[in-house]
Amino acid sequence: MTERSPTDAVVDIDVGGAEARRAVLLEQATIAYNVVEGVIAIMAGFAAGSVALVGFGFDSGIEVAAAAVVLWRLRADIRGGVVDGARQRRALRFVALTFFLLAGYVVVEGVRDLVAGAVPDTSPVGIALTGASIVVMPLLARAKDRAGRAMGSRLVVADAAETTLCAWLSVSTFAGLVAFAVLEWTWIDAVAGFVIAGFAVNEGREAWHGELVCDDHD
């Protein structure tokens, strides 16, 4: 007889309380914000010839996909009142794959920018957008982390970690856009992107194994 691992079991968590409803609202807010953010970033990125800004927009799409999966699982769990550990692990692995996808994109585009010596135009729209995301994304991440921990949901905590990563990507993109506008440092965004890629790979690995831990000091 094959033993089931702890993550394969059906486990009880607080899926019917206020924190679960708050988590649903937070995932809906994440989707709405990132749809708007992604559309604006991609349009502004193509207009300015900024690969970093276009990449930032595609990252918003990844965040939408991850949040949609988490929202789907939350609603299913709330209806059933219990969490199927096997399904939660599959959802966590989807979140992990989005981390890896983002890391790969950032590395490839960063190397290409450095080799090609890409010089984009200044983008005031991109600076304003990424500046707003520096404020909004950490607030969403912290709120989702609190809700996920209160529920005992690793899936929500994993998604909060992805939102935190998106916040750091906002910082990187903002710094790159401002540095280019003021100092014409075209390389800074690629270098910062490599650091973020390392963080993404680590978080993705932990999410893949269901071991993601993201606290206020990470």
What would you say this structure looks like, in words?
The chain is an all-alpha fold. The chain has one domain (10-208): Up-down Bundle (Alpha-lytic protease prodomain-like). The chain has six helices and two strands. Strands 1-2 form a two-stranded antiparallel ribbon. Helix 1 (18-48) packs antiparallel against helix 2, helix 2 (51-80) packs antiparallel against helix 3 (85-116) and helix 2 runs antiparallel to helix 5 (154-183). The relative contact order is 0.16.
Task: Give the helix level as a range of percent.
Answer: over 70%
- The secondary structure category is mainly alpha
User: How many domain units?
Assistant: 1
Question: DSSP helix count?
Answer: 6
Q: How many strand elements? A: 2
Overall body shape: elongated
CATH topology: Alpha-lytic protease prodomain-like
* Strand arrangement across the biggest beta sheet: 1-2
Separation, N- and C-terminal Cα atoms: 40 Å
Which parts are unreliable, with pLDDT below 50 for 5 consecutive residues or more?
1-12, 212-218
* N-to-C SSE string, H for helix and E for strand: EHHEHHHH
- The gyration radius over C-alpha positions equals 18 Å
Main sheet characteristics: 2 strands, antiparallel
User: What percentage of the residues does DSSP assign to strands (E)?
Assistant: under 5%
